[in-house]
Amino acid sequence: MRQCAALAGVAAGLLAVLSAPAAGPRPQAKGGTKMQAGIQKQAFGKTAEGTPVELYVLTNGKGMTAKIMTYGGIVTELLAPDRDGKAGNVVLGFDDLKGYLAGHPYFGAITGRVANRIAGAKFTLDGKEYTLDANNGPNSLHGGKKGFDKVVWKGKALETAAGPALKLTYLSPDGEEGFPGNLATTVVYTLTNKNELKIDYTATTDKATPVNLTNHSYFNLAGPKSGSILGHELMIAASAYTPTDAALIPTGNVQKINGSPLDFTKPTAIGARIKELMTEPLGYDHNYVLRGGGKGLVLAARVHEPKTGRVMEVHTTEPAIQLYTGNFLDGTQTGHGGVVYHQYQGFCLEAQHFPDAVHHANFPSIILRREKTYTQTTVYGFSAK
Ligand code: GLA
Questions:
Q1: Which atom of ligand 1 is least distant from the CA of 136?
Q2: Element holding 80 (H helix, E strand)
């Protein structure tokens, strides 16, 4: 981060923040530099259609910085302190918009209108069949060909008591990617004073529609250039998952995981049992059913990276979380600072409703009706030990 915005008062602060010249970094006790809290906006290029894209830089004054752009609501960089207080980027991504426009596997993006898979790219709602874009074999994945990860959101900088925030809004028109209803969607990213990236999603519709939103950040708590994440120790607060077929479509069962290589109830290195999985490609790409999930903000997962000491805790209001270990990363993407992304170089913990919920009455419903408001909150909290 080259510049750092100054924040004076609350009301005047926002304007000041958006236009303020750089204030110098302040020295921090243990090695790193702490920037003053605030949010700063900068131009980040244009899409192929010529739509301008902005990058917002959120700084919380406690050692964390989040860079989030209006294209796809993508978290391009997330800097968190290690055990020596040194801030380092912990997510996969590219240095410029071009990298994202060239195509990528949802790095940092908001995925929707329906994250994860819908079998056969169709569903029936209130007696009517809807056909979606099939973008993953015969199935729909993460909202279709042009999902929420590829649209330009409207950004607004906010100063909240919890910390600097970016409000993103997008009106997904009726029929977009085959989904019914105009869906007014808001996503607020707050970089809290407690070193959390908090994501609040809300949506309303004028026609019943399925909605399942998440964030698809790939984390590497030692920094993406450190290589594989298989040494990260992971705990997931789940004792069941939703088994799938080979195309990752749920069978509809909810199965216990006791003692199997899927069991992360006790902190275990991600790679410890990965070879025992019978998947192709090899790796985790599983939907975990959270204990007490869907009933308020609960602890879903904790990850500890032993070399840097960084710890990430995930709390969510969602009933489930998808663990994906970057199985499809194959060295064809070159990210920040020329780092090539190989298999297992990042992991995702995507808080969500169950995949293909539209086809399984026993899964929590993802249907949003006209008079209701969809809400979901997920908090990625950072510390070091
Ligand atoms: C999700 C899916 C994976 C894969 C990635 C993107 O996590 O579950 O199977 O499609 O997105 O590559």
A1: 10
A2: strand 75-81
Question: What's the gap between Cα 33 and its chain centre?
Answer: 26
What is each CA distance from 151 to 189, 204, 295, in whole angstroms? 17, 18, 31
Measured CA to CA, the distance from residue 61 to residue 47 in angstroms comes to: 32
Is residue 200 in contact with ligand 1, taking CB distance under 6 Å?
A: no
Residue indicated by tokens 């060239």: 102
Rounded to the nearest angstrom, the distance between the alpha carbon of 146 and the centre of ligand 1 is 15
Rounded to an integer, what distance in angstroms lies between the CA atom of residue 11 and that of residue 112? 33
Both tokens assigned to 181: 């209803």
Q: Catalytic residue at 77?
A: no
Render pLDDT for 339-371 as a digit per residue (tens, 0 to 9): 999 999 999 999 999 999 999 999 999 999 999
Q: Is residue 129 among the annotated active site residues?
A: no
With a 6 A CB cut-off, is 140 part of the ligand 1 pocket?
no
Note if the pTM is more than 0.85. yes
Q: What's 97's DSSP letter?
A: H
